[in-house]
Each structure stands twice: as structure tokens, then as C-alpha cells.
Amino acid sequence: MSAQVAVIMGSKSDLPSLKGAFDTLRSFGIEFEARVISAHRTPDTAAEYAKTAEERGIKILICAAGMAAHLAGVIAAHTTLPVIGIPMASEPFSGFDALLAMVQMPPGIPVSTVTAGPAGAKNAALTAVSILALSDAALKEKLKAFRAEQTRKVEEADAALQKELGLA
Length: 168
Ligand code: RP5
Known about the structure:
By secondary structure, the chain is of the alpha/beta class. It has helices spanning 19-27, 43-53, 71-77, 96-103, 117-132, 137-164; strands at 5-9, 32-36, 60-66, 83-88, 112-113. The chain has two domains: 5-135, 3-Layer(aba) Sandwich (Rossmann fold); 137-168.
């Protein structure tokens, strides 16, 4: 099967923050493309990539960028596919700059923005999985199993806490 998800990062320096996204996509068996494309440093490639994504079979684009993070917005401007943005944390504003750049899209061109850092990367991938699961019953079952396992782990931690504190 060809890639259904595209993960684009504004710089190779963003890669370490995206580990959770790749791990999550792989754990659900989702094929993905991954590219370094910059809205500012390679603007023509960014536009071309977004314009041709759908014809290659891509269904969702995940865009990670830091600082004046225009990548997700520029990609969204050139496609009607869903775009999920992950703000990258960098100095001196720790990702708040990128968060505002991504989340403050003008009405008409949305970027669904998750939080910065590992939680954001993981949730971007899980959002992509849940969108794909709308038309994939087997994937939906995997997603439900993931949630059930997550619930089980929290319940297990709670039981351990009760024991540790002598409350059970
Ligand atoms: C953004 O600028 C990138 O997404 C990265 O987070 C930030 C810094 O890029 P480098 O200078 O490390 O290439 O476009």
C-alpha cells in the first residue's frame, strides 16, 4: 500500500521531537512519507509537495516546524487534505512562538494544531490514525485496543498507588 500519511518537518533538527509520531504510526502499521521541507528555505518545494500529495494517495499531512512556523499553514493553503501542525520548541520562546504561528490561521485555511513536544507528536499521529480509522474497520479495532490498553495501565498504576500508600 502507498503512504497515507505525510510527515513534513521544517528542518532535520526537528527530527528528535518527532520520534513519538513515527513510533505511533509504525505501531498502527500506517505507511508514511517523511520529508524535510521548509516554508521559507524551500518554498517552491513546499507548494509542489502539497499540491501533489493527494494524487500520490496521501490522506493526511502532519507538519512540524519551529520559530516562525509557517510550514503547516503554507501546506494547508495548497491542499484540501487535513493538515495537523506540531509546534517545535526552540529558544528563546520554547515553542510558544510556533504554537501561535500554527494555531492562529485565518478562517478558511485550518491547521489542526496539537501541543509542542513529545505529547504533540504522539497526538498528531493518533489524530491521523483516528481519521484513517473512519474508513478502515481493522484500524478502528486497533485504535480501540490501544485505548483499552492505555486504560488498563492507568488502572494498574492506581491499584499500585493504593497499595504503596497503604490505602487498599
Ligand atoms: C524552522 O526553524 C524549523 O522547523 C526548525 O524548528 C527551526 C530551526 O531550523 P534550523 O535552523 O535548525 O534548521 O523552520
